[in-house]
Design brief:
5 helices; 78% helix; single chain; 130 residues; mainly alpha
Length: 130
């Protein structure tokens, strides 16, 4: 139990520092250090998102940053996507899940590197001379 809590805390800290989703760190940590299979690690990671999303939505709603109708639509559609994902995850071999997750992780890393090389707030053209 302590190992799982430590994995969660470390994944959260690194996700916050790097600006990436915690699942990108949480899933590999669960497979490597907690001995879970890919399917169980992904399911655990997704389940961990639920309370975070609920608390975040509740807090942001208090600030007036949540449009209830859009939030409801997003929640319903995300739930439907989760059910579809479970069906697919249970239908494909675990090795395919591992390779798919690895490909997603490489893509996210590529996006982070690409974004670091071309900052969106950098001056362009003759605006720098003004």
């Amino acid at each position: 139990m302590i190992e799982a809590a430590l994995i969660g805390v470390l994944a959260g800290v690194f996700a916050g520092l790097l600006g990436i989703g915690g699942g990108a760190l949480f899933v590999p940590a669960l497979t490597l250090f907690a001995g879970l299979g890919q399917l169980d690690a992904e399911a655990t990671s997704l389940l961990a998102i639920v309370p975070v999303a609920l608390v975040g939505t509740w807090r942001q709603r208090g600030y007036g940053n949540v449009r209830d109708r859009d939030a409801l639509a997003l929640g319903v559609l995300a739930s439907m996507g989760a059910v579809g994902g479970v069906v697919i995850a249970n239908a494909v071999p675990e090795r395919a899940l591992e390779l798919g997750f690895a490909a997603l992780t490489v893509y996210v890393a590529w996006q982070l590197v690409r974004g670091a090389r071309t900052p969106s707030d950098a001056p362009t053209g003759d605006t720098a001379a003004r």
